[in-house]
Structure formats: structure tokens, C-alpha cells
């Protein structure tokens, strides 16, 4: 496994300065934002595609700092009912896949997206319960008319380019847990897998280790981000909390730097489960901790993960077997 970083954390730096800074801290591979909600930081596909000199410059910059790119990420909603948003995020997605091919990067990360409740919707509608029955009718329409057709098309397109798609389960989108992840991957076909972020599972009450073992070989990329459960408010209000992220003291849960939501034993179990499935890719730090500065959260995450990572070459240990193959 390689210690990685979602480089959008240092989006105010130039690519050269960002790579130099993180390499000094022990980062081995970087995930680069190329569109969607997060924007295009450090590399803009529209400006780089087809420019062989610029592609070579980027690759040379990475080599000089001893780094690779683990994935391009355009976390967006290409299924948004507003056609302008949907088209913009779809274009970012297509361009990210094409850029990945030119850069020699094998994985592009995205969200599954979420449609509205009908063709006349203006905003996304996330269904979280089966009653009143109109909710299930809406969910069926979303999957059959929007989700499956789109992802079958994009799965085919990515395969043609020799690039994998890693979908990140996230509440608010149609793929948010293990069951919905498996449903989309099965519908989209080979080469469409998962960007696994345990922080989104912790606060929903899921067990990341069980989810990892169940998803197995479908895990193409991994985000290292933690969640702290604030038990008082969780017991009062449950996990569906719509208060702004900045209201940390009143929320049922909050994103934290790794190790500040769950301790070393939990993260050792997560890393070990990944290894049991055969995963040997990036452990990409995503820092969204509202209690820590940019460099403090990054530094603490690096130090914590260096202690729990398994870096030996992949292999089956005595008494174990590959899971999820």
C-alpha cells in the first residue's frame, strides 16, 4: 500500500509547490481533483488534453518529486435534474477519463449522482425510506430510467479508454452503502468499482471492516478520513443530521482526521481487511476536520497512518485466503 493524499487540500499551492511539500512529509502518491463539486485543482483537463508537451511536463514534475498519481477525481452529480449542472459534471467526468488515459492513470473517482423525482425536478431527491409508497416509486424510476442507463454508458466508455471508475458511496446520492454500491457495479459492468471512504459509513452505523470484506476486489481506491460520533446528539437526533458542518458542537457526528474519531485498533483492522481482499493501492488522506488547520490535520494523519499501514508486498499469509474474489 502507498501513503497518499487528495491533493485538493493544498489547492492554493502550485502543482510544483504542492508536490514538493507533500513529498517531504512522506507521501508517495497523490489524487488530483479534475472537476465536479471539488473543481479542477492543479490540473485542468480542458487545458491539458491533447497537449503532449504539458502531459510530459506534469509527468516529469511527478518523477522529480518521487510521486505518482493514484487517481483523478471529479466528485460530481452527472445525474442532476438541472441540465446545466448535469452536463457540466458529465463533461468533467468524460474529460477526466480521457486525461487519465493520456497521463497513464488507471482510476477516476466520482459519486454515483442522484436524479430528481421526475423529469420536471429542479433538485436532487435522495430517498431514505420506503413509505409513503411514492418514495419507492420514485426510487424505481431513478434507477431504471436514470442511474442504470447512465452508468452502463459510462462504464462502456471508460473500458474503451482502458480506465477504471471508482464510485464513492456517499449519503445524498443513490449509492451510499454496500447494497447500492453492489447494485450499481453489477449494472455498469467490469471496470466500475468503489472508492471506499469509511468516514461516510461510520456515521451511518455501518462496520467498514465488514463492508470491505463484502466488497472485496471491487475496491479500486481508498480515502483515509475519520468520523467522530457525538453520542449525546446521536441518541437524541439519530444520524441524519442536516446542521451545517461548521456547527460541530451541536451535530450528531463530525468528520475528523484519522485517529480522532476511531483509534489505532479500528484503523489497523480496516487496513488489514483491505490487505485480505488483495488491495495494495493508495491510502489517500482526505482532510476535512473542522477542528484542525490544514497542515496540522495533514501532519497528524501522515504520522498516524505510517504507524498502521501494511506496506509489505501483497501475498496470502498462512491460514488466510483472498476475500471477495
Structural description of this entry:
The chain contains 11 helices and 10 strands. It is of the alpha/beta class and 325 residues long. 42% of the residues lie in helices and 14% in strands. The protein has one domain: Alpha-Beta Barrel (TIM Barrel). Residues 20-307 form the Xylose isomerase-like TIM barrel domain. One of its GO terms (molecular function) is isomerase activity. Pfam families: AP_endonuc_2. This is Sugar phosphate isomerase/epimerase.
Search tags:
Sugar phosphate isomerase/epimerase; eight-stranded parallel β-barrel; IolE/XylAMocC-like; Xyl_isomerase-like_sf; 325 residues; two-stranded antiparallel sheet; TIM Barrel; disordered C terminus; alpha/beta
Topology:
Blueprint: E1 2-6, H1 15-24, E2 29-33, H2 45-48, H3 52-64, E3 68-73, H4 83-103, E4 107-110, H5 133-161, E5 164-167, H6 178-188, E6 192-196, H7 199-202, H8 208-215, E7 219-224, E8 226-229, H9 231-237, E9 253-256, H10 264-276, E10 282-285, H11 294-308
Parallel strand pairs: 1-2, 1-10, 2-3, 3-4, 4-5, 5-6, 6-7, 7-10
Antiparallel strand pairs: 8-9
Give the number of domains. 1
Largest sheet: 8 strands, parallel, barrel
Radius of gyration: 19 Å
In helices, the fraction of residues equals: 40-55%
The CATH superfamily bears the name Divalent-metal-dependent TIM barrel enzymes
User: What would CATH call the class?
Assistant: Alpha Beta
Shape, principal axes of CA atoms: globular
The average pLDDT score comes to 94
Number of strands: 10
Distance between the termini: 19 Å
Helical region count?
Answer: 11
Order of adjacent strands in the largest pleated sheet: 1-2-3-4-5-6-7-10
CATH topology name: TIM Barrel
Judging by the overall fold, what is the CATH architecture?
Alpha-Beta Barrel
The residue ranges in which pLDDT falls below 50 over 5 or more consecutive positions are 316-325
Classify the secondary structure makeup into a structural class: alpha/beta
Proportion of strand residues: 5-15%
The H/E string reads EHEHHEHEHEHEHHEEHEHEH
InterPro entries: IolE/XylAMocC-like, Xyl_isomerase-like_sf, Xyl_isomerase-like_TIM-brl
GO molecular function, one term: isomerase activity
Organism: Paenibacillus filicis
Protein name: Sugar phosphate isomerase/epimerase
Amino acid at each position: 500500500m502507498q501513503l497518499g493524499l487528495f491533493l485538493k487540500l493544498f489547492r492554493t499551492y502550485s502543482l510544483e509547490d504542492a508536490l514538493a511539500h507533500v513529498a517531504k512529509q512522506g507521501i508517495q502518491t497523490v489524487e488530483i481533483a479534475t472537476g465536479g463539486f471539488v473543481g479542477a485543482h492543479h490540473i485542468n483537463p480542458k487545458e491539458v488534453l491533447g497537449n503532449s508537451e504539458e502531459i510530459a511536463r506534469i509527468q516529469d514534475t511527478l518523477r522529480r518529486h518521487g510521486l505518482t498519481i493514484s487517481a483523478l477525481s471529479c466528485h460530481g452529480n452527472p445525474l442532476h435534474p438541472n441540465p446545466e449542472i448535469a452536463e457540466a459534471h458529465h463533461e468533467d467526468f468524460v474529460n477526466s477519463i480521457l486525461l487519465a488515459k493520456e497521463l497513464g492513470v488507471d482510476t477516476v473517482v466520482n459519486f454515483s449522482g442522484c436524479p430528481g423525482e421526475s423529469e420536471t425536478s429542479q433538485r436532487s431527491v435522495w430517498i431514505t425510506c420506503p413509505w409513503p409508497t411514492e418514495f419507492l416509486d420514485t426510487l424505481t424510476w431513478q434507477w431504471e430510467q436514470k442511474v442504470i442507463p447512465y452508468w452502463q454508458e459510462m462504464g462502456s466508455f471508460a473500458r474503451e479508454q482502458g480506465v477504471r471508475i471508482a464510485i464513492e458511496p456517499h449519503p445524498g446520492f443513490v449509492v451510499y452503502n454496500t447494497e447500492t454500491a453492489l447494485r450499481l457495479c453489477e449494472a455498469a459492468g467490469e471496470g466500475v468499482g468503489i472508492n471506499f471512504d469509511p468516514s461516510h459509513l461510520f456515521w451511518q452505523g455501518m462496520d467498514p471492516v465488514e463492508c470491505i470484506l463484502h466488497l472485496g476486489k471491487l475496491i479500486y481506491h481508498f480515502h483515509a478520513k475519520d468520523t467522530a460520533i457525538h453520542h449525546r446528539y446521536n441518541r437524541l437526533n439519530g444520524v441524519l443530521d442536516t446542521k451545517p458542518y461548521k456547527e460541530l458542537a451541536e451535530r450528531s457526528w463530525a468528520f475528523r482526521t484519522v485517529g480522532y474519531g476511531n483509534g489505532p485498533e479500528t484503523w489497523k483492522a480496516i487496513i488489514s481487511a483491505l490487505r485480505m481482499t488483495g488491495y495494495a493501492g493508495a491510502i489517500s488522506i482526505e482532510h476535512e476536520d473542522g477542528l484542525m488547520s490544514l497542515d496540522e490535520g495533514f501532519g497528524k494523519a501522515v504520522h498516524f497512518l505510517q504507524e498502521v499501514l501494511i506496506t509489505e508486498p501483497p501475498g496470502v499469509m498462512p491460514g488466510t485466503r483472498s476475500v471477495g474474489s
